[in-house]
Amino acid sequence: MKELVQLLANGVVSGSIIALAAVGISLVYGILRIVNFAHGDYLAFGAFAALLVNVTWGGSMVLATVFAVLATAALSIALELVLWRPMRRKGAGVFTLFVTGIGLALVLRHLLFLVATAEQRRYDVDVFQVYDIGGIRLSQSQLIGVGLSLVSLLLIALLLARSSIGKAMRAVSDDVDLAAIAGVNVDRIVLFTWILAGALAGLGGVLAGLLQSAFDPNVGFVLLLPVFAAVVLGGIGSAYGALVGGVGLGIAMELSTWDALAGGLSPVWKPVVAFAVLTAVLLFRPQGLFGRAATL
Amino acid sequence: MSALTSLDFWAFVGVIAGIYTIFALGLQVQFGFTGLMNFGHVAFMAISAYTMAILVVKVGLPLGLAALAAVVAGILFGLVVGLPSLRLRADYFAITTIAFAEIVRHVALNWDALTGGSQGTIALAGPLQAASYNTAWVDFQTRVGGWLSPILGEDPNKDLVMLFIVWAAALVLLVLVQYVIKSPWGRVLKAVREDEDAAAALGKNVFSYKLQSLALGAGLGAVAGLFYAFQFSFFSPNDFEPLTTFFAWTIVILGGTARNWAVPVGAVIFGIIFAGTRFFEFAPFTLFDSPERAYLRLVIIGLILIALMAFRPQGLLGKREDLVFE
Amino acid sequence: MSSATALLEVRDVAKRFGGLRAVDGASLDVARGSITALIGPNGAGKTTLFNLVAGHYRPERGTVRFDGRSIGGRPPHAVAGAGLVRTFQHARALTRLTVLENMLLAAPAQPGERFWRLFVTPGAVRRRERTIEARASELLRLVRLEPLAHDYAGSLSGGQRKLLEFARGLMREPEMIMLDEPMAGVNPTLGLELLELMRSLRASRGLTFLMIEHDLEVVMGVSDEVHVMNQGRVIASGPPETIRRDPQVIDAYLGTHGGAPPEPVEGPV
Fold first, then answer.
1. Total number of domains constituting chain B
2. Which of A41, A201, A270, B121 is least crowded, fewest Cβ atoms below 10 Å from its Cβ?
3. Å from B294 to nearest chain A CA?
4. Of C9, C1, C41, which Cα lies nearest the Cα of C232?
């Protein structure tokens, strides 16, 4: 029983980070109907931006995280203005944008490799500090990770539900033509969405780097497929769904190692669990938990 | 500089180009002719290579039979992937295919007893036994070398013989695909690509044809996997990462997605960029160390993909009107 | 209209899109060997009904029977396979195939469409290809598209694409064709020839036609029976003269045309 609760807690922690990236992808998909294959590398960018501040310049993790969030948001803006928007203006369709995302992913990731090498990195934090909360053991990194993620996700949820810009985002997501007629500045909303997605990716990258004992420029790409699985599980186009899907997938991946379940799987199979979930959802309930059936 | 003029080097580039021609041809059938966005193509290569190696090393099957079984396994996996996922929208189908390919790679990585795990086929059995599929191939290669001695001279260079075999196979397959595409069957594939609803309204079972196209492409990918295994002797799961599929896509797009014969051209260009830059021992390439040159190569390939999508989506040889996608 | 002669029987089909009841319990019969028209104001649900019959949508309730067999809910290719072909309101020419390829695609029983036949019986494939090429050329000549046979279908005008769809449908050698606004975008002279073609095909091959048409003069002149749809239901069925005078029909059209459907055109049609 105790092991189950521990696994659940671990699952919530890792799931909340998956959720950060998943919500970012979902927001972009909702507005632009494209799957940004480079999103994982936005995360990696964030992780390394924080590394620059924390390790190279000796700054605190707090400073590093803030910097990472801002830097990734800036990257996101730059790419929207330089790449995505011009492609859309040219009438690029699903295939073209998907391949563009793949090309971008290759460029970003290997530029990071060029600059930072394949050396395994870690942040300058105390990894040994562990807290015991009611029998569950969580490291300082895990607590920070889940805390920051859930707070950010809550803020995003509030933004979407209550603010006027959130309403505008939902309007554009539902029907871009109608929204434009209703006076929404679609370009501005698109840009704002990219800023949010970039910020979430930046934060997600730092937290992912924190949680792993060490990371390299592949840190984002390795997460990308579980993130897609979370998006699909939650429902394509639903940001709330991505949240639930992310946490749910994190839990599923952790639970797969539980030895009460026929001995449990070795942790190496966790990615396969994620892919299997992705496939199963697409087979049996393609619209996911909260998605709109029509989009598929 | 001497490497550039060495026969061995160019033979190697040629073999890679030949393997990628066959590999990318499979993608050409699936995407160029049927509109299927398969981004997990490397899975068929992996399944085929591993099936062949396991059947020879662990089961003791003769090479020819094992190779045949490997291609069948690749085709069957194509059906396994297609059945649940072909009804999805294009980019979600693409992601699902990547997921399937990653499952294959992870299984190969972690099921040590079956596949040798992260070490690859060298760990399939004891050292002598593990090499058995390769020694069987070398025997075959030597025999072919004998047949070719009128052209290539006595005891011809092993790489040259390999080059010949791979490109002979590539040529046969190119002709085969051309025949099949120009046929009524190929016509249905093209109709499915153009407008599924119209094709269905004319009595065509769209799902079945997509599955057939996926299977044919998978078979071609499987053949490429066999040659990969023979060329590199031992292989491991690292050889079958999503990157390989992206390379094939680059080739298909580079050549122009609507044309069969552009595939070998794209493959050769790609082979030169890829293998060639490894050996450029002069500035500015000497500014970078070897691992960095590898990263640079991938940055360049990424930029090529973006540039193609932005400025010349019909590829180098394609015509604007033939553009297969929007 | 006894069901013994009805080739197509639609009973109480319905389809909703979100809150909109596009088809809300529609029923009609199409007699074998007839030219039947389906008319009604815009938004009445005519094309949705076509889509339900053709298998593009599943009916939420009701039955569709073709030639005695149930086809309701079966997929489009199965419906086409049963002998019922449809054309689309916005002609769906396969743009990057040539006009001729469009036609050849529609030919039934081309063994070459099965992969294994390409290798096992290539001779039979070639022979059938020659036969259907001849037939395709003949049909293209009928619709005046023969000179464009080797052009990409994408280069055709809207009206020409409509004609291609019509010819392509005939190529399939169906029992019945459902035409969605076959005259739209087609020049009037050619339109009249199409109607004549329909009549002669009905006479020579017993082909059955069901068409959605907005040009009521045409409809009244050539149809054996007319069904009128409004708000998702068939509100009237009968010969053209009866329909013209039906008060419900006049009501339905009052909103759009402000008067009764016009007098039929008698003449060299």
1. 1
2. A270
3. 9
4. C41
